[in-house]
Amino acid sequence: MQYPQATAAMVMLHQMVPPPPQPQYVRHFLPYHPSPSPQNHQHQAGTAAGEENKTIWVGDLHYWMEENYLHTCFGHTGEVVSIKVFCNKQIGWSEGYGFVEFYTRAAAEKVLQSFAGHIMPNTDQPFRLNWASFSMDDRCADVAPDHSIFVGDLASDVTDAMLQEIFASKYSSVEGAKVVIDANTGRSKGYGFVRCGNDNGKMLAMTEMNGVFCSGRPM
């Protein structure tokens, strides 16, 4: 049995009752960013302060050691901000050193302590680490003057150590030497580079060492 009047009254009553208020949520969350990391906030705060050194110097790198190699060494710490390996502009290989910047000084100091004396992967030599003398923000391969000398006509048995020794015995400014090796044969290509600490030493060596014998052969 239908009751039209009762039905109409219920409809009117329903329309007169206001809907329940919607719950109000206080937005305490921040906008989402992919792969958030708490270290990023630490890095920003440390950079603003600009006081702490968070960069370590890595020396005695082989010619094939690039940024990816150093990342395999230190990346597992989860504290690496950036890595830079300085390369020779003429041959594109490592100059033998690089820099690793960390989020905090504590992280860098921990690496210095824990890696001391440990052997570098795929080599038989230990890590050579120290505090960098400047910030990674100031690093730039083009800023540092190139004091490298090209040395040709090298005997096939000349090594990095031999080349460095013959120059360093006469010039205290010599910082290192590198004989270019063929990546396919593993043998010397007959030339290399000697790195000096200043332009004066470079010019003297270029003038006075021209034609000097090394391993029975003039350079």
Automatic annotation (TrEMBL):
Primary localization class, coarse: cytoplasm
Coiled coil: none
Top-rank taxon, per record: Eukaryota
All residue ranges annotated as the RRM domain in the record: 54-134, 147-219
UniProt key word Iron: no
InterPro entries from the UniProt entry: Nucleotide-bd_a/b_plait_sf, RBD_domain_sf, RBM42_RBP45_47-like, RRM_dom
Pfam families, per the entry: RRM_1
GO cellular component: cytosol; nucleus
Molecular function terms from GO: mRNA binding
UniProt keywords, alphabetically: mRNA processing, Nucleus, Repeat, RNA-binding
Localization: Cytoplasmic granule; Nucleus
A Gene Ontology BP annotation from the UniProt entry: mRNA processing
Quaternary data: Interacts with the poly(A) tail of mRNA in nucleus.
Job description of the protein: Heterogeneous nuclear ribonucleoprotein (hnRNP)-protein binding the poly(A) tail of mRNA and probably involved in some steps of pre-mRNA maturation.
PANTHER family: POLYADENYLATE-BINDING PROTEIN RBP47C-RELATED, TRNA SELENOCYSTEINE 1-ASSOCIATED PROTEIN 1-RELATED-RELATED
Family: Belongs to the polyadenylate-binding RBP47 family.
Entry protein name: Putative Polyadenylate-binding protein RBP47B
Organism expressing this protein natively: Cocos nucifera
Lineage, top ranks: Eukaryota, Viridiplantae, Streptophyta, Embryophyta, Tracheophyta
